[in-house]
Amino acid sequence: METTGNRVSLGEIFRTFLIIGVTGFGGGMAVVALVERVCVHEKEWIGHEEFMHGLAFGQFLGPFSLNACTFVGCTLRGRIGGTVAAFAFILPSFLIVSFLSLLYFRYHELPELQAALQGTNPVIIALILVAAIGMGRKIRGVEPWAIALLAFILAAFFQVNGLALLVLTALWSLARARFRQEHR
Amino acid sequence: MGSLATIAWTFLKIGLVFVGGGYVLIPLLHRIMVDQYHWLTMKEFLDGLALSQLTPGPLAILATFVGFRAGGFAGALAGTVAIFLPCTALMVFLTRRYERLRNIRLIREVLDGVVPAVVGLVAAAGWKLGGTSLVSLRDILLFAAGFAILQFTKVSPLFVILGAGALGYFLHFS
């Protein structure tokens, strides 16, 4: 799927990811849910399927949240787009943490951030849930649903590492694809 | 205090290991920063970890905090750029090839096969956070309001999240 008729400007990419960087409380999945909402639904920069593929291999490469941003930027405007998105996303965190580090190492105290977090946490959970519901709607067929459910149960109740789950699923899909090829 | 080159090189190495998955980051940083280089005390490290969790952005922004301790603002900059460089470069590299790779049937089928697992992981992250964060009636009300707004309206998440933060701050003092 070609995503864009007219090219998205680098300034627009920068602004969008800067805002995502400012509001990306909770890291990881919270940011992914945010990127999904803004880039797939609001701006329609990238298709659902492409985004999900990007997430899948973004998870293998370390910081999930940053990778999701890099992926979207890169899909829109190539190397420069990816770099701009990654830079804009990290910039607010970098400035905030630098400033707080300065205060911390001077006064050896953490500012009163916990209170604000008590307000954002429930909303972030809602954001993640809304994203999961939206993504779940696109799942078709019994086997994909079984995989989704199994992944959920293993990760939520048995603390199985997400990366391990993805590797296992990839191997399973690979084996199945090979099997199908041979039996045709 | 470490020299800028040492800081940058150290974080670049951490960034490379980090590519394999974010799970090793905390024990690795701890061993190198606290035990090996003595850039931080144990308490400072834990406070930095809390700080990274409380601020927006990825947990790896801990590199900014540690870099700051090791070499001031320049150290923070060097540490941050170095730790995120390998994964961003690799991600850009892979995404450029994704367009071509996805046309290969086998790769496409594997990618499609992994998607449901990602959905399960997203849901699991919400579930786990919910178990630890939704503890009072106020939390549940905020959650319900946030869910309704995000699910049924097109209000930007920027306002919803920052608004909830302001509300939390305000309610805390009332």
Quote the average pLDDT of chain B.
Answer: 83
Number of strands of chain A: 0
| Nearest-integer average pLDDT of chain A | 83
Overall number of structural domains of chain B: 2
This entry's quaternary arrangement is heterodimer
Structural class of chain A: mainly alpha
Portion in helices of chain B: over 70%
Most extensive contact: A-B, 106 and 92 residues
Secondary structure elements and pairings:
The complex is a heterodimer of chains A (184) and B (174).
Chain A: H1 10-23, H2 28-42, H3 48-60, H4 64-107, H5 114-137, H6 142-157, H7 162-182
Chain B: H1 4-18, H2 25-36, H3 42-54, H4 62-101, H5 105-133, H6 137-152, H7 157-173
Helix pairs in contact in B: 1-4
Descriptive overview:
Chain A: GO terms for molecular function: chromate transmembrane transporter activity. Chain A: It holds the Pfam family Chromate_transp. Chain A: It comes from Geobacter hydrogenophilus. Chain A: Its main location: membrane. Chain A: InterPro entries: CHR_Transporter, Chromate_transpt. Chain B: Belongs to the chromate ion transporter (CHR) (TC 2.A.51) family. The complex is a heterodimer of chains A (184) and B (174). Chain A folds into 2 domains: 10-138, no CATH class; 141-184. Chain A is globular, with a radius of gyration of 19 Å. The model of chain A has no long low-confidence stretch (mean pLDDT 83). Chain A is 80% helix and 0% strand. Chain A has 184 residues and is mainly alpha-helical. Chain B is mainly alpha-helical. Chain B has 2 domains: 4-101, no CATH class; 112-173, no CATH class. Helices cover 82% and strands 0% of the residues of chain B. Chain B has 7 helices and no strands. Chain B has helices spanning 4-18, 25-36, 42-54, 62-101, 105-133, 137-152, 157-173. Chain B is flat. In chain B, 45% of the residues are buried. The model of chain B has no long low-confidence stretch (mean pLDDT 83).
